[in-house]
Amino acid sequence: MDFELENAVAKLEDVLAGFKAVVVGFSGGVDSTYLAAVAARVLPGRTLAVTADSPSLPRDEFDECEKLAAELGIQHRVVATTEFSNDEYLKNDGLRCFYCKSELMEALVPIADEHEAVVVLGVNASDQGDYRPGQSAAARAGGRFPLLEAGMTKEMIREHARALGLPNWDKAQAACLSSRVPYGTPITLETLSRVERAERYLRSVGFKEIRVRDYGETARIEVGRGELLACAEMASEVDDELRRIGYSYVTLDLAGFTSGNMNRSLARRPRA
To answer: How far apart are CA 176 and CA 55, in angstroms?
Structure first.
């Protein structure tokens, strides 16, 4: 472990040690898994991982959360969130993530209060600079971001997660299914189901970094830059399967996978 990483890990442990107990927002991604694993070491018996279940969480990801928590011996709880009953969330404007994280915190804070704990989320230093209104919502509700406070980047997290033997240290970045829908297009269960089935198929044939952006009749596929050629070579098969799922047109984004890609449209909108 190099000095920079060692120093960041020590800071992370210090931050966590300052809490009586923690409730970790647990999505099954490498960030929340790493945070939960380190917290469980620093605060044994005082770390609870909580997964928020809603239609925007793919079923494969939900199953992975339960499996990971059991494998790592971390206390785990599932709570249903109600963002899909919020019309402001469903209309999918630039504040969708704000409403989502607000709903999440409404579910997590009472659990934290039960355990005299603090809600902690897996925001890291590499997340800074992108448009993240959800982070603001979580902070307003009292959420803390220990990875960010320790200055840990995504690369650092993966490196230390690997050293700790976490099984998902190299897992591709994930995001809720609603992030696949362009801002201004209402979120529907039908749309999210179509996206989920399309992405599950693409993973089943070997693609690792995947987003299927849903534009109604059109699917825009993003895969890792190193996977673009492979996807193009499977064009006929991919087109057939996504048409079967419900798309009329299937396109491949030549720029490859880009996290937060939909935020570009917000940057182009005129300011009031």
So the answer is: 9
CATH number of 3-163, picked from 2.40.400.10, 3.40.50.620, 3.40.50.10190, 3.40.50.2000: 3.40.50.620
- Domain 177-267 is found in CATH 2.30.30: no
The total number of residues shown for the chain amounts to 272
Is the whole model's pTM more than 0.85, yes or no? yes
**Contact (Cβ atoms closer than 8 angstroms) between residue 66 and residue 92:** no
pLDDT in single tens digits along all 272 residues of the chain: 788 999 999 999 999 999 999 999 999 999 999 999 999 999 999 999 999 999 999 999 999 999 999 999 999 999 999 999 999 999 999 999 999 999 999 999 999 999 999 999 999 999 876 678 899 999 999 999 999 999 999 999 999 999 999 999 999 888 899 999 999 999 999 999 999 999 999 999 999 999 999 999 999 999 999 999 999 999 999 999 999 999 999 999 999 998 767 666 665 544 43
Distance CA 149, CA 139 (A): 13
Inter-CA distances, 90 with 51, 56, 135, 225, Å: 21, 11, 19, 32
Cα–Cα distance for residue pair 209/186, rounded to 1 Å: 25
Domain locations in the chain? 3-163, 177-267
In Å, how far are 42, 113, 117, 118 from 20, measured between CA atoms? 11, 11, 6, 8
Q: How far is CA 249 from CA 89, 164, 167, 189, in A?
A: 27, 44, 36, 20
| Residue 235 burial (10 A CB sphere; 0-12, 13-18, 19+) | exposed
